[in-house]
Amino acid sequence: MKKFLGFLLLAALIALAIWAFLHFKGFGGFGKNSEKGKGNDTSISETTKPEVTTAEDKQLETAEITVSGNDYLYNNEKLTLDKLVAEISKLDKNIEITINSDDTAAKNTVDDLTDKLEELGYNNFKKADK
Q1: Which pTM value belongs to this model?
Q2: N or C terminus of the chain: which is more exposed, having fewer CB within 10 Å?
Q3: Distances (CA, A) of 116 to 3, 88, 111
Q4: Are residues 100 and 65 located together in one domain of the fold?
Q5: Where is the composition biased (Polar residues) (predicted)?
């Protein structure tokens, strides 16, 4: 029995060492982020200009609606459901819509919004976790 427990302990230690080696890519400071910050590279690299997205481009890709109590907030404005639908109808049908609701949001208010979005053909919406 002692030999079996010894073998089991040895196998567990070996498994732990393999996991640590794979997870941290080695021991002694050779972990996942160990290459960051080392400035010893003498090669010349190409610089690429990062793609700049403006707030207007971001707004065209996504829309964010917040439900608070019985109110809908869109683009920093408090709107009725009809006015909100009029604003959303101007957007592309494939836009990603995120529905945020706070603790005071009435369930039927959120349900009315999701029903209206489905009715209009906006199927790419999600309810954000609280």
Answers
A1: 0.50
A2: N
A3: 69, 10, 8
A4: yes
A5: 40-51
Percent of the chain with pLDDT over 70: 71
**Full residue range of the structural domain in which residue 114 is found:** 55-127
Rounded Cα–Cα distance for residues 59 and 24 (Å): 39
Number of domains in the chain: 2
* Cβ 88 vs Cβ 118: under 8 Å: no
Q: Compute the distance between CA of residue 31 and CA of residue 13 in angstroms, rounded to an integer.
A: 19
pLDDT digits (tens, 9 = 90+) for 89-118: 888 888 898 888 888 888 888 889 889 888
C-alpha distances (whole Å) from 26 to each of 31, 37, 41 are 6, 18, 21
DSSP 125: E
